[in-house]
Design brief:
The protein is α+β, with helices and mostly antiparallel strands. Helix content is about 30%, strand content about 25%.
Length: about 190
């Protein structure tokens, strides 16, 4: 009888490693399912659009450096998006015309298989609640232009001033600032 009591006393109540891993996995799955609903899809759409715009500005700057030519991001008048185009000295001051624009090739080729670098928030289901609500560029322009050195310019040889873009979504609003000359991009959330 004594040996039986010792055997039951030495056994400890604990969870096995398998049980702990299963609980952690279930909690992870539940958090993954619930997190977007807790945060709000509008906020996720807006922050995703901001990250995309910052990446595209950086891409345009890098593309200008690599190609040693001008690259311009033109923002549509209705705030629905923007496109990335290549320009020359000859057509630098020409107004934007979507039919004749020399679009930069989109490495991901997402626009109707054409490869044009166009981001349209209305047509893209990922950003359906996002729009460009405010745009302030040098001289009231609707474009951000980079030269062959990667700097922002107003006209050939003339540096541009600071640029400001405001992206607005359902639950969030962000201000993207482009520094003069260097084209450094900063982001600030401007709603509560």
């Amino acid at each position: 009888m004594i040996s039986m009591t010792r055997a039951t006393r030495t056994r400890r109540n604990a969870y096995t490693l398998i049980e702990l891993l299963m609980v952690v996995a279930l909690l992870g799955i539940a958090a993954g399912i619930l997190a977007p609903q807790l945060i709000g899809m509008g906020r996720l759409e807006t922050s995703s659009a901001v990250r995309r715009l910052v990446a595209d500005i950086t891409f345009a700057q890098s593309e200008a450096l690599a190609a040693q030519s001008y690259r311009r991001i033109h923002f549509y008048d209705d705030g629905s998006g923007y496109c990335l185009v290549s320009i020359t000295d000859a057509d630098f001051n020409d107004p934007f015309n979507p039919a004749t624009a020399d679009y930069v090739a989109d490495p991901s080729g997402t626009v109707r298989g054409l490869g044009h670098y166009i981001v349209n928030y209305v047509d893209d289901g990922r950003f359906k609640s996002v729009s460009i609500s405010d745009l302030e560029m040098t001289g009231g322009s609707r474009s951000l232009t980079f030269d062959s050195l990667g700097g922002t310019i107003e006209s050939p040889g003339t540096p541009a001033g600071e640029g400001r873009i405001v992206l607005t979504g359902e639950d969030a609003e962000y201000e993207i600032t482009i520094a003069p000359v260097t084209g450094k991009v900063s982001v600030l959330r401007i709603d509560g």
